[in-house]
Fold each of these.
Amino acid sequence: MVTEPQLVRLESGSALVFPTLDLFLVVTKVPLPKPSICHTDITLRYKIVIDTIHVNNYIVTMTIWSPQLPQTDGTLTQRLVEALRDDVRTGRLAQGERLPTHRELAEHLGIAIGTVTRVYAIAQREGLISGEIGRGTFVRPLQNEDSEHTGKDEVAGSIDLSKNRVARYSRDSMLGEGLAALISKPDLAFLLDTYQPAAGVPRHREVAADWLSRPGFAVRADQTLVCSGAQHALFVTLATITKPGDTLLAEQITYAGVRALASLLHLRLQGVAFDEYGLIPDAFETACISSGAKVLYCIPTLHNPTSAIMPAERRQQIAAIATRNGISIIEDDVYGFVPGELAPLPIAAYAPERTFYVNSTSKSIAPGLRIGYVVAPPDSVSRIANTIHSSTLEATPIMSELATIWIESGAAAETIKWKQEEIAARHALALSILGDLGEVSKHPSCHIWLPLPEPWRSEDFVTQARNCLVIISPSEAFVVGRGSAPHAVRICLGAPSDRRQLEKGLEILAEILGNAPEPGFTTV
Ligand SMILES: Cc1ncc(COP(=O)(O)O)c(C=O)c1O
């Protein structure tokens, strides 16, 4: 019997057992799901659900887990971990659920007990489950990984659909195998102890050139320079071929990172009209003549934020116009891996003498590698190398080596294949919830551009979504100069770590869309 009142701190996802009372408490912090009950008062963001389960013998809800093994080449352990990971992420295994003991699961699946022990140990290391001596193994609450990096704007417990990253492929052995290969390299000390050439280690440049090549687009190693991500590749290119005060042409709505670079380098960014197929050739030609610009930045494949893909014919026209007007092109192809060879050839294939082709491993493999590449016209290679040297001496050779190992071993290709499938599934999910979004959003992509119906304005919709704990980006974030911002928002489908979260976020957005904006004003 409890004789004195006790104050117990209840953490979300915790399970408290009071053996003397035969009482088991499960505490769940549930975000309020419906926009209709959304409220700006942050105290109303959650309801706390406390389930009490009286137990006589410690047996709480236990799942006899029947995994669906993925059809991959991995070992049984790897495939079981993958199935477990998938079931936790998709919610088939609910947080707090107790998994069978090692012996029970081994008997249920007809496998060795040691295999189950290994699977649970790996899943525990990954934070998917937790084992508590005497109590069993439980599914852990999913962390909102996105919130770790969102800085001051972060809203705790929110579904962040604003970061343009591509769902993580986390076959656990991939990182380990890559790092083991890195450690066993005979030239590891050489990579660690010496400064490398600014353009990158020659072998890394060769492997990267081969990786970026495709039929009809042959990339040469001596034109490929290793950078610290695509953002750095864009920076060194712009810093090399422009000077303060120059005009930089770009699609009227463009990647926010290039707006930041234009401001940093004191360039005048001028928007060029575009439609659902990308830059409009006539508008580009007019801008070339009237602006005196010498450089165009564009994203022909899965444009960020609209996800438009420029057809081959337009790419040839853009290349021809640039050639006629003496314009250099910076072609950003970081999303090119999504359609892969289904995408038309890069513009660089049509105007190699004037195109700086930029790509990176951030979206296709992992952003934390910070390895990007610029393929420069032959006469600009040494100048770009000098800018790399001035800005960072060289991209980190160890990370460049890891990227090279993953490319050579096939791990990069495996990751890309997984991401292509995941993106296709997420994109189909988005269209099924939000409806057909027209030509511009028809390509499987990790971000979509949602045009807003009357009377929604972009900022109002973003605010309302934020009040409902869904974070998305307003069109203003991508507008070049003082051009008007369309009534649209960008939604990043690859941002949440699991599809269940994405689905929840999209359903909330769909419901907001169906309602009128809440009346109110913040400025007096
Ligand atoms: C179009 C585009 N280019 C470049 C980048 C930056 O890529 P990285 O992480 O390789 O610097 C991004 C990131 O979102 C992007 O969307």
Note: The two ends are 58 Å apart (CA to CA).
Amino acid sequence: MRTVSLGNTGPRVSALGLGCMGMSALYGEADRAESVATIHAALEAGVTLLDTGDFYGMGHNEMLIGEALRSAPAARREQALVSVKFGALRDPDGGWSGYDGRPAAVRNFAAYSLQRLGVDHIDVYRIARVDPDVPIEETVGAIAELVEKGYVRHIGLSEAGAETVRRAAATAPVSDLQIEYSLISRGIERDILPTTRELGIGITAYGVLSRGLISGHFTADRQLAAGDFRAHSPRFQGENLRHNLNLVEALRKIADDKGVTVAQIAIAWVLSRGEDIVPLVGARRRDRLTEALGALDVTLEEAELKAIEEAVPEGAAAGERYPEAQMAHLDSER
Ligand SMILES: NC(=O)c1ccc[n+]([C@@H]2O[C@H](COP(=O)([O-])OP(=O)(O)OC[C@H]3O[C@@H](n4cnc5c(N)ncnc54)[C@H](OP(=O)(O)O)[C@@H]3O)[C@@H](O)[C@H]2O)c1
């Protein structure tokens, strides 16, 4: 597996990371045994970066990763790097009630995550959304103290805008910014990516398949459970969905000509944007993982990149990437 450096100060990680969210939350039911098998298969294939959030299934995802790490061969477990997001506040009924980036909360979140994961340190630690009531310097400063004490190795950011990235980086070394980036979510190209590149900060890109929308497997008649994020996501609704799936069909022609899959084209396109960008793929099953890993062998020539951008021009998607209330939490969209 090819490895890359996560920013100037971050760890070396596999060129593709595994995002584990869907194994516990937001995409409907997941199979626990298959989830653990998928994590094991990823580690076996050389994937070293596992991404989670303490709020994915209210601790469920961290406990799942902990279980998978404990039952993996020692050599694989030792190579694994776990990136954890914190800060989202949940209700017992699964509701969301804001973010908390106060230093005491940061220490509290970390203490619980270490226990649930069953590890003595977290490799990359980041607040999931910038808390508008707490200066980023205070949140990042609290993580920096955890780094000093050995509980955290690297500081990351998530969905932060360019100005916040600068302020965070002036406080302590930042390894990477985790943010949505795909053929149909290219907002970071304007200000954020130039800023992270100037500062030597890596990108861990999520939603590279736009949550399955541009994977080539999503169909208009798919029934989604009420708790499935996609049941409320603007891009998956009615006319927007039909429009967006037409873009996928245009991509499918390019994929077919090249003898690869749509998902592989979408992941390979993100990989082609630069070595500083590490896609986190949200595979929940081994077959999806195998497909995603195949993207690492796909090289896109200039003419193919041009054809892809013609098939899916910037801004071509219908609908925002989050429902309105959640868009309001995105510092990156201000
Ligand atoms: N920082 C943040 O704010 C943030 C937000 C969201 C996610 N994340 C992180 O990023 C990770 C990835 O995000 P994501 O899951 O939304 O992105 P994604 O990779 O765009 O979407 C994953 C979904 O795509 C579908 N899919 C179809 N073919 C696939 C293939 N070959 N490989 C992988 N998935 C395939 C799967 O749905 P089916 O299984 O239903 O087919 C899967 O649930 C998450 O697990 C999480 O760790 C971070």
Note: Residues 162 and 192 are 5 Å apart (CA to CA).
Amino acid sequence: MSDTVALQAQNLYKVFGRRPKEVIKRLKAGESRDSLTSMGTAAVIDASFDVKQGEIFVVMGLSGSGKSTLIRMLNGLWEPSAGSVTIGDTPITGIPDKELRAVRTKHVSMVFQHFALLPHRTVLENAAYGLEIQGMSSDERRQKALEWIERVGLKGWEQKLPGQLSGGMQQRVGLARALAADTDILLMDEAFSALDPLIRREMQEQLVELQQELGKTIIFITHDLNEAMFLGDRIAVMRDGRIVQIGAPDDILTDPANDYVAQFVQDVDRARVLTASGVMEPARSVITATAGPRGALRTMRDLQTSAVFVVGNGRKLLGVVRDRDVMRAVKDNEKDIMSILRHDTPTVGPDQHLVDLFGISAESTLPVAVIDDENRLLGAIPRVTLLASLGNVPSTTTEIPVVEPPVTVPVEAMTETLRETGGDEAVADAVADGAAADEETAASEGSAN
Ligand SMILES: Nc1ncnc2c1ncn2[C@@H]1O[C@H](COP(=O)(O)OP(=O)(O)OP(=O)(O)O)[C@@H](O)[C@H]1O
Ligand SMILES: [Mg+2]
């Protein structure tokens, strides 16, 4: 996503009814929307926001909250009662129809809830429709439309009529038509709402994929919070014509602006919204490779854990060592930890959704390691944290213990082995190393926040 603003809404109002100006004046003076219904319905009240180029901006709200009215003002289909819309550098509010149409043709396409396909035209002709309006030659638009039909998975269906297609397929035609028009902004009003859940999920995933590839700016309207959370880079929550909160999905979920939003987000599928970096804990059982097997054993004993992460320079994750291997190495007087290093650490990137973590977490007793692009250990997600975050239980370590994988070697045996093989003096370094690794995390996390 770039910082360039693709579309800007400034203090937009839309009032249906006899006296829009009077309604707006009174709303501005603080009167309530409900008290003004005899003069008009305030469908959108004082909406302001910027949508960045390449962003998926979701507008969410219950039926009647003003979403469709808002989106229709964004592409100039409806004139605002007050306020203005700017697309790229071009203010579109109040400009002559002809200019408005030109801006729309060039910059904005729309995908509707009920497909809005032309029933007597083939899939191919429907997909090419926007290009026809743009005045493209028939060969060229056929070529382009074919490309997009294939891209959305409808190859072979070009000559069918919309009525011969399932709902999901018809919506793909709508999407192909919008994409073929090659505008930089896509407006989608409840585009997936009529689809059954599995197809809908598929379409959501495909949309995200296409967006990442094509860098389109998408304004997506939905009343489905899960959809909003899955798709949105940012979400605007609407209630009774007003935008009550704009924020990233995580913000809206963890820091709702008011009770209304809080209630709205209560039922959201957190696993699809929260990310690894949002729930991870500082990794506690970490040693540097130089700590050696003795350092590892000492750390395991102190933290009563059966596994510790081993990091190298720059806190890069090298792997993990297990208590039995460490015991054996210490007894054998082995100095190099690399000989017992395992590489079966479950790892994820910071942006991975929790839903992707369950399988990984289930396959291993180890906490999942969160690593960045350069393999640096950012934090860890023990299973208990994963579960706590789904229930919206605060996962601070003071309230829920971070459960380390339990020891498989008795702690007494560890202490005994350490004593037998050379007292605790050699261990002091290792602990210092381990602590240093921890401090480093704390420092890097501090700076990241
Ligand atoms: N053409 C119109 N004339 C009069 N009132 C309208 C018109 N269009 C919408 N409204 C009113 O404006 C308010 C907002 O409607 P809008 O269609 O924008 O809501 P929405 O959030 O899109 O709802 P839904 O989820 O049902 O599509 C509603 O109270 C609606 O009755
Ligand atoms: Mg609507």
Note: Residues 16, 41, 43, 61, 63-69, 223 surround adenosine-5'-triphosphate (ligand 1) (CB under 6 Å).
